[in-house]
Amino acid sequence: MYMLAWWALFVSALYSLYSRSKTLYVILVGFFIYVAAVVAPETSRDAAVYIDYYNSVIAGVPVDVEFSFKLICYVAEYFFSSSAGIFYIYALISIPVKAFVIWRLSPYPLLSLFAYASYAYLLYDFTQIRAGLAASFVLLAFYFYVTNAGYKASLALAAAVFFHFSAFVFAFAFVLFGLGNFLLVSFILFSLTLLMALVSLLAPGELFGTVSLLSYLDFTGKVSIYLSLQSDGVLADISFVRRLAPVLYCLLPLIFHVFYIGRDRLLLLYMEVLCIGMFAFSFFSALPALAYRFSDYFFIFCCLSLAHIWRLWGRTITFIYTTAYCCGMMYYMLFYLDFAG
């Protein structure tokens, strides 16, 4: 079912280069909501965990999850009397919020939706649905920031943290945005990323005391859990090449755009967000579970940045370039990492 939706989106993205159809966009978003709400519970590799959490919450058994998830479990039990309800609720909130931001910010929404469906959708809305809902509000916070609605951006980020505490990391993006000079900040972050990646490769181990620092700030106990799992060989694998190569693929056209076409605020913000994500991944690389989790809140913006380069190459080459990204990421997520079970 997912592959059917993916191919339908591929054809629609090609069509959208010449016509912006809101009706088609809504239909395809609805299709992906259906897949996340109905198909994912049967095939997603994390579905069984969420069902176990749901059963524990409803039975009154203590379980280490956010209050927001428990609240959604109670709502699902009230309206649906089944664990399937949690997947309905997450899909019906998370995907429309992302779709709204994509429609508002992307010059080619169906092309951005195609890029989103090839990576972030499988990661978040098909699998890690709690973090996925938080990521939706991270995107919404960014949209409000871009439209100069500061208090709304703060509320959206607070909502993201409410749904998954790890989303607090995006607050650092707003701090860095406030420094201005997006290009200079991006260059510094990119340089630091390369330095830390080199240090990590030449001298594997804890980087700059990251784990020690996080242990002191471990308010939720998650770091201790991740360290325990890592010592047992679980969540211990990390690859700079596999992780950063797709982001560099999205970042390079933005750099070319700056030098050959010119700058605009949104393009520079995308560049800075991707560089923050790369920096976060490298900085927390000693703890792979957190490195992946934190950086994904920034890498989700690849779906928006790819469509933004149409003035550099024109819409046809932009479509081809984005499609190459989509095919590679979809294969990586679906077949290499087996995110659909």
From TrEMBL:
Keyword Transmembrane helix included in the entry's annotation: yes
Protein name, as recorded: EpsG family protein
Signal peptide: none
Keywords in alphabetical order: Membrane, Transmembrane, Transmembrane helix
Record flagged with keyword Amino-acid biosynthesis: no
Pfam families xref list: EpsG
Transmembrane domains' residue ranges: 23-40, 71-93, 105-124, 131-147, 153-175, 182-201, 207-229, 241-261, 267-287, 294-313, 319-337
